[in-house]
Request: fold
Amino acid sequence: MRILDRYVLREFVKLLLLFSLAAPLLFILGDWTDNIDEFTEDAIPAARVALGYVFQMPEFISWSLPIAALIATVFTVSNMTRHSEMAAAKAGGISFYRALRVLPVLGVLLTLLGLGLSELVPVTEGLRRQTLGQKQESYARSDFVYRSRAGDTYAIVNLNSDDQTIRGITVERPGDLETTPSIHIVADVAVWDTAQHSWTLRTGHYRAILDDSTDRSISFAELRSPRFRETPEQLAARPKDPEEMRYAELSEYIDILQRSGNEPLKLMVRQLEKIAIPVATLIIVLFGAPLANSSSRGGPAYGIGISLGVTITYLMMFKVTEAAGSTGSLPVVAAAWLPNAIFAVAAGVLLWRIRT
Reply:
């Protein structure tokens, strides 16, 4: 790595760390101010509150990463231009693209960091809730039918989260009446086994039908079905905040809702945004570099103003397209990726117009 690359890298990382660590402190202060009465009422020790905010730091950092990357890019490039460092590099035969070639690499690394944080946040959020003693809300569902991914149909009378028990269940598993029997199971109770990650059916009847002349039925006191592995939360189709679910969990939850006859467009958009928003960090770096080079006359306040304006516009576009995708006005892929596409085109135009 040459001296110029190390210089750009040092300036960018210095500014990135400053803003990406300062912003979470502001988030913590704002959250603490909003929740201090609740912490006091629940008599939560200060050490546990502090530990809860430690677990929440990945979420705060993920929020601040795009604007921190843009501010770091704008200030790095504008300072080099204002102090004639960019002019000196061009005089030495080094183009704008060559001088700042390290920035796209940093953008890719920050994108990977954002993707990692999006998977880490649901885990740390669970730890934060556990640390602060925030119990999961109880839920129940009665008289519903659920179709599993394996093709089994469960008719459930009552599902309760407090004891993770089903009262009254009928299982239907279709066969081909030649080699695979059709299964019909009726049980009074089913209990969720967290360790085995499966249900145990108690006090019921098991009936296997192979063809018109073969019909076998037995009574059982206890039956464990290896195919019946849907969790109580999945059976209840319990709504969760997308930020509380990892990408695979959100995909599975969407699949459950679709098999139940729903079309969760908003969740589908939010799932795609778990990739699109981290990628926005790379695009915003590519957009910010030529923008700062062409708008280098202002000082620090001007640079911060540009960064905030671009970031707010970017986030507003995500909100608008998300709303359009949630109502079906836009395809879900377009709703998640349209802001990135627009800013990528704008970045390409700005880069093309740069005098190298």
